[in-house]
Amino acid sequence: MAKRNTFKEDEVLEEPFDIKHLLRASSYIKKYGKRMISALILSAIGGAVGLLGPMIIQKTLDEVIPAGDTSKLVIMILCLLGTVLVSILFTTFRERIMVRVSQRIIYDIRKDLFAHLQRLSFQYYDDRPQGKILVRVVNNVNSVADMLSNGLINIVLEGLNLIFIVVFMLLVDVKLSLVVLAMVPVLAVFMFWIKNKQRKAWQQVSNKNSNLNAYLQENIVGAKVTQMFAREEENAKIFSELSDSCHKSWMEAVKYSNLVWPGIDDISVVSRALLFFCGLFLFGQGNASIGVIVAISSYASRFWQPIMNLGNIFNTFINNIAYLERIFETMDEKVDVDNAEDATILPPIKGEVTFSHVDFSYEEGKPVLKDVSFTIKPGESVALVGPTGAGKSTIVNLISRFYDVQGGSVSIDGEDVSKVTLHSLRSQMGIMLQDSFIFSGTIEDNIRYGKLDATYEEIKKAASVVCADDFIEDLQAGYATEVKERGGTLSQGQKQLISFARTLLSDPRILILDEATSSIDVQTEKALQKGLDAMLHGRTSFIIAHRLSTIKNCDKIMYVADGGILESGSHEELMAKKGAYYSLYTAQSQQAS
Amino acid sequence: MYKTRDKIKWIWTNMEGFHAIYILGMIGTVIYNVLQLVVPFFSGKMIDMYLTGEDAVYNMEHHRNFFFILLGVMVGATFLRTIIVYVSCMAYEKGSQKVLYKVRSFLFEKILRQDMRFYSKYRTGDLMTRVTGDLDAVRHMIAWVIRAVIESFSLVMATAVYFFIMDWRVALAILSISPVIAIIIAQFKKHVAPRHKMLRERLAELNTDAQENIAGNRVVKAFAREEYEKEKFDKSSRAYAEQNEKTALTWLSYFPYVETLANMLPSILLLTGGIFMIAGTMTMGEYVAFSGLTWAISNPMRQVGNVMNEFQRFQAASDKVLEIYYSEATITDRPDAKDLTERFQGEIVFDHVSFAYPDEEAVAPVLRDISFTIKPGETLAIMGETGCGKTSLIQLIPRFYDPYEGRILIDGEDIKSFKLTDLRHQIGLATQDVLLYSDTIDGNIAYGDVDMPEKDVLKYAKYSAANGFIKAMPEGYDTIIGERGVGLSGGQKQRISLARALAIRPSILILDDTTSAVDLETEKQIQEGLANLDFPCTKIMIAQRISTTKNADHIMILKDGKILEMGNHEELIRQNGYYADLVRLQLGEEVLASMLAGKEGK
């Protein structure tokens, strides 16, 4: 396992810059190929019509005005206006197309990125701050939009423009053209030097912003803890440092980015000076006619304009490539728990769960489970007890295949869980996690999360079974009460009840309760138990609980310790055995009295 | 919402210390734009004198040095101009980054110091958008929009002056279209402003949805709801893209008019110039001088729509930033709050306290008329049904909320008379919903005191029975735990959170069901640890288990926000009420009977 990342460390990007990122990005563009090409053609036509303008002006100045023909002057001006209108019409069409295309492209990229994130396992989310994931989905994707749409089109247009100019220039005079082109190698060296500097600098900007985002998110979520420990000042100091690194990395990056434009400008003026010098002085006046020099010098200035534009595009490319890399890196993140290629659909579960010589560890060399084997018969209720951190949660997490085992196998009704589709497996299981996460929305919606097409009656019934109906009805708007992020003002126990109702509503074939009732008071739990017993009838269930009173009646109790099942049997059997469970149970009753 | 003038003032004050640099940048912009108008003059002169002019051959032979001077001036002026461009760009960047840095730090601290009412109003993703994306639009304004405005303005002004000097009639004709453009842009502004506002909202929603999905990824997987989540996210992603499109298209519906007007300049020039030339009141040379500089008027005209678009984006985004910037917490230090230098003795008095969550006072009081006293060093255990107000009650002590009626006193003084930080420094709270930071375990325990020596960290971990499992981890106290403590079991998280609360050596320790997820053996150790702390403290603990609460000096039973029973274990057993029921429920009838008998026997 890679080391966990925090806001303090940059996420290292090992891959060197690769043109393949752009090629890959092109797969997003392909879809809009037709539109992009039509935009390109529109631009080209618009540009060409625009070029007629100077010709009309020239003709007017040369012929119409000397002739003093006012009516012809008006006609020429109308023609001029006509070219302007046509050119603008085409440009507007192009822009309209490109606005749509660029929005579609970011929408597509974001969709794929989000879809991939849904497939990534717990591990991925465990290993990095949430703020760093968020920044990729939102900010980074936004950044690359323009580059992939208008950026690309402009490269093509400016490139074509450049080629035309060079060809025309060469046709006029090869020697003088070579003088103009002599500065191109200088430009190439300059751009190459700056590219390397810039790329690193913009990667730093991306890293530092990501760190800042991570810390920001953590602090918004944890503001209460910070206030409790009156650590506002300390945290503000840390944030200021992060913010300062963002500022420094930005200044470092723009130090190079801002050089591009003036740099090209300088090179171009040197090139023009060189042209005058060579044309007039070095080659001698007899060598080239005045017309040729004037023509070449006007081409020369037209030659540098697209290069400057390309320089600007280049700038946006370089700084956005850093974001593109991050996006593709996330999309390439290996899905460690994934459907097998030939995964089958798990038929309706009867409920037999078998662990066969299961080995598991979160980190290499630190086994959590060693050679664990057991079989649970359909409909049995199983309690897992034992010290914290012994591996109880791990066992239940393996049944839902939140992690993959390293050795042995976990199977349900004889089917290896790693060989069936995740969806068919998990949608038949009801898992109540330790952290009862509540989404913002109404209480009704939160419960409905367990069964999306549930009716209000079904929801109310599920809530009644877990004794949540009373308190929900007492709320201002009942089931329609909006709960804020993370449950807002609901108490921890209430959140657990809602998440319990949500699980029950999903009508699971196998129910897993991981400390599901730890924050619920004993009275409520007792009442809840009754309803639950009825629901559980005929379903396999796994219950992790510390209050032994709640699990005494389970069919089977497994005592988990030291990476394995130490004892297993019914309450009576284990009491008779006078082993670990016996001491735990007697300790609990003694301690209580 | 906020006036533009106030916003500029706001930016200006936040740029403190960098005003000179920024102004220098602005002056630089003016200079290089004027230079931009001047340089072509030299190359024109060169072409005239040495190439196309009548005396070109003569000049080449007899005024060679001047040719080189002109060449030198052309190159030199460009070099000078590019240096000024670079320096001035960097000045804008510096100024904008300074504002960004300052406002961002300020916002962060502001958010951190907000009360719970604020947090129920703004969602995480929304706040993050304001501090990142919205604030970036402010930066863009300072670094780019203002520069573009000055650039356009100086170009137009310089050129206009020049034009008027040359021929006021033509100048007037050329500038006559600017009022039309101004009217169009004003119309565009009205049209686009609400769309930008909407766009900022959509961005915040997108961020909020993505944030919640990431935070709830475990639940999503547990219910195999990936498809549903994708659909949900798709909605906000699509809405954002569509709003973006709509906003951009708004400009495009004005663009043809502005662009046509700007592109009409050469035609207007040709018309007026043509007429005047035919009439003989204008020379070809003058015409060329005009036409060589029309770009300096038409480019800024084209730019103005773009600038207005960006400016509206700034307007929408800065409103959102300022809303947080100027937000005030309702729970703050009183102006006369006094410094607290000594430890509390730890006497806590609730004096007819009633409480409801903000804005719900009339409908849903959570606590009603609570009064009790705990003496220094005593332990109070609070029990009661889910949702009866236990957590609400203890949250009043560090003033996460204020009661709407009654007072809370510590050592005889109203807690509102202390500074918030001082008050909270004395209270150790381990909350139910454990929130740890992605940091080392050591860093998490020493959260309240970053300079804590390692042996102390160890000590507090031992009090909370956490040393054992921490030691067993491959990197011990240096193990990095994920956000919200992922990778740890519920019980482990609770113990670290307890150690964190103990590590500030509080004079009042509040435990909100902190041991609900630990096993009994461990809880016993924790109880022992808590009984033997090396500092005095008053303890308030919420718990479900009789084993945790029975040794407390006071046990309070809350029901529907009111005190139902209060007394010690023996007293409450004898009352044979709710508490006795709990004993019966948890330990059985016999134990209760023996308890009763035992006490009566004494």
Question: Which CATH class of the largest domain in chain B applies here?
Answer: Mainly Alpha
Basic shape of chain A? elongated
Helix and strand content put the structural class of chain B at alpha/beta
| Sheet with most strands: strand arrangement of chain A | 6-9-10-3-11-12
What spatial form of chain B do the alpha-carbon principal axes imply? elongated
- Order of strands across the biggest sheet of chain B? 6-9-10-3-11-12
Q: Could you name the CATH homologous superfamily of the domain at 173-336 in chain A?
A: ABC transporter type 1, transmembrane domain
Largest interface: A-B, 179 and 167 residues
The whole-angstrom Rg of chain A is 35 Å
Percent strand of chain B equals 5-15%
Task: Specify the helix fraction band of chain B.
Answer: 55-70%
Number of DSSP E strands of chain A: 12
Average pLDDT of chain A: 86
What would you say the CATH architecture of the largest domain in chain B is? Up-down Bundle
Number of helices of chain A: 19
Structure description:
Helices cover 63% and strands 11% of the residues of chain A. Chain A is an alpha/beta fold and 593 residues long. Among the domains of chain A are: 173-336, ABC transporter type 1, transmembrane domain (ABC transporter transmembrane region fold), CATH 1.20.1560.10; 338-428 and 553-593, Rossmann fold, CATH 3.40.50.300. Chain A has a 6-stranded mixed β-sheet, sandwiched between helices. In chain A, strands 2-1-4-5 form a 4-stranded antiparallel β-sheet. In chain A, helix 2 (33-67) packs antiparallel against helix 3, helix 2 (33-67) packs across helix 5 (130-172) and helix 18 (571-577) crosses helix 19. Chain A is elongated and about 120 Å long. Chain B is α/β, with parallel strands linked by helices and 602 residues long. Chain B has 4 domains: 95-325, ABC transporter transmembrane region fold (Up-down Bundle); 336-426 and 536-567, P-loop containing nucleotide triphosphate hydrolases (Rossmann fold), CATH 3.40.50; 429-505, P-loop containing nucleotide triphosphate hydrolases (Rossmann fold, 3-Layer(aba) Sandwich); 576-602, no CATH class. Helices cover 64% and strands 10% of the residues of chain B. In chain B, the strands form 3 sheets. In chain B, strands 6-9-10-3-11-12 form a 6-stranded mixed β-sheet. A 4-stranded antiparallel β-sheet of chain B has the order 2-1-4-5, with no helix packed on it. In chain B, strand 9, helix 20 and strand 10 form a beta-alpha-beta unit. In chain B, helix 4 (64-112) runs antiparallel to helix 6. Chain B is elongated. The termini of chain B are far apart. At the A-B interface, helix 2, helix 3, helix 4, helix 5 and helix 7 of A face helix 2, helix 3, helix 4, helix 5 and helix 6 of B.
